[in-house]
Amino acid sequence: MRLLIVSGSQRKRSQSAKVAGYLAEKIEGFDQVDHIELCQYQLPFWDGDTLTGKDAELWDSLRQRSQQSDALILITPEWGGMASPLIRNFLLMSSLEDTAHKPVMLVSVVSGINGAYPIAELRMNALKNLKLVPVPDHLIVRNVGECLNGNEVNGKRDQQLRQRIDYHLHMLHQYAQALLPLRHSYQHSPHPQQADFAYGM
């Protein structure tokens, strides 16, 4: 089984990428863990038109990694109470063929004490047309500069966060296993009107 982690900060050497690295080290049960750090790529912003040339080649290479995954983790910084433009753009460019009926764990990263709004935003309006299945256990990494810094635990809150992460990653793997037969049925035994109802209401 394959896990894809997508970190959506527009800054290089970001705290979102740090969290992605920590999660990748702690994950168990998946045979392969892949990490796409969106700021490392010059993806065009989605405008509804078909991509051509180098843009199409770049996106095809990224979407293949998404297609091959059995579960996803989407990590976004909170900026102005919102998810990052890069994570939204990634989702707009994705399609059902890449994501349908795969579990996704949502992660918000914030330097302060907030972080709930990007989770609510993504749950509310970013996943329905992709048929991604958000697992109940989202993660908010608050005061991110003070935690998940290597193997040295920085106090009780950092320890509790690490324990919560272990549980969340365990459950994500359980959801990935549970949804495998559903995806197989979706792909190989489609409903007669499946194409007519490709998108959620």
UniProtKB/TrEMBL annotation:
Domain of life, per lineage: Bacteria
One Gene Ontology term, aspect cellular component: cytosol
InterPro entries recorded: Flavoprotein-like_sf, FMN_Rdtase-like_dom, NAD(P)H-dep_reductase
Record Pfam families: FMN_red
The entry's keywords: Flavoprotein, FMN
Keyword hit for Manganese: no
Keyword Flavoprotein: yes
Domain NADPH-dependent FMN reductase-like: 1-142
GO molecular function, one term: FMN binding
Protein name from the UniProt record: NADPH-dependent oxidoreductase
